Every structure is written in C-alpha cells, then in structure tokens.
C-alpha cells in the first residue's frame, strides 16, 4: 500500500511539474513593420496642431476681479501641479485667470472637474474671436 501511495505521489508531482513548465513556456517577440513616412506624417500633424488658430477652442476661467487677487489665484493654481497653462488676461475692468486651451468641450469639461476642487466658481467658456 505504501509503495502505491509513493508511486501516485511521484506521478502527481511529475505531472504538476510538467504542466507548470508547459504553461510558462510561452515566449515570443513582436515585430512591427511600418512605413517610414508615418513618422513624417505625425510630425507634420503635430506642427499643424501647434500652428492652428486657437480662437475656436475652449478655456476655463478660474478668477475675475482685481489684479492682486488674480495673481494670487494664478499662483495657487500653479501650486496645484495641474498640467495646464494659465494666463492673466485684462478685460475692462477686471483681471481674469484663464486656464487651458482645449480643442473640444469634453476635454474642457474633464479638466474643469479637476479645477473645481480648488476653484468652485470656475467655468468653461469659448473666448470671443478678436476682430482683425
């Protein structure tokens, strides 16, 4: 009886080791074949996006009021380490802090949700186009 148990145990251990080796034995490499012109196209697209007219984009206003408070609001915003540019703008009679430069409303709304944690009166808007 003991020899039967030893044989079964040995067989079980061998099977487990064999099956474990099979399950971890899958290795391979991935090769990506792409046209060299794709990198050129991506660079051109990036350049076009950077030079695009930004007047049709969305922004977030976090403050409107006097200059000293506007500067405080801007420094508070910068200390939050949210990766968005901020800009001090003067529109008679108030100084305003505008944040971001978003291509679409959804992108602006996502950022607005983060900004509202510290600036609850912040809102999304689309700046008026300047007359040339």
Automatic annotation (TrEMBL):
MF (Gene Ontology): peptidoglycan binding
Domain of life of the source: Bacteria
Pfam family for this entry, one: SPOR
Domain SPOR stretches: 55-123
InterPro entries linked: SPOR-like_dom, SPOR-like_sf
Organism: Xanthomarina spongicola
Name of the protein in its database record: Sporulation related protein
Keyword annotations of the record: Signal
Span of the signal peptide: 1-25
């Amino acid at each position: 009886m003991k020899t039967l148990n030893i044989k079964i145990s040995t067989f079980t251990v061998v099977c487990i080791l064999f099956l474990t080796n099979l399950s971890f034995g899958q290795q391979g490499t991935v090769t990506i074949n792409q046209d060299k012109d794709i990198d050129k196209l991506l660079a051109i697209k990036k350049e076009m996006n950077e030079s695009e007219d930004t007047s049709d984009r969305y922004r977030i206003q976090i403050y409107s009021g006097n200059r000293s408070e506007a500067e405080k609001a801007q420094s508070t915003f910068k200390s939050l380490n949210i990766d968005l540019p901020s800009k001090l703008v003067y529109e008679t009679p108030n100084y305003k802090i505008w944040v971001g430069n978003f291509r679409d409303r959804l992108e602006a709304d996502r950022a607005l949700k983060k900004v509202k944690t510290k600036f609850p009166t912040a809102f999304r808007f689309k700046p008026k186009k300047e007359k040339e």
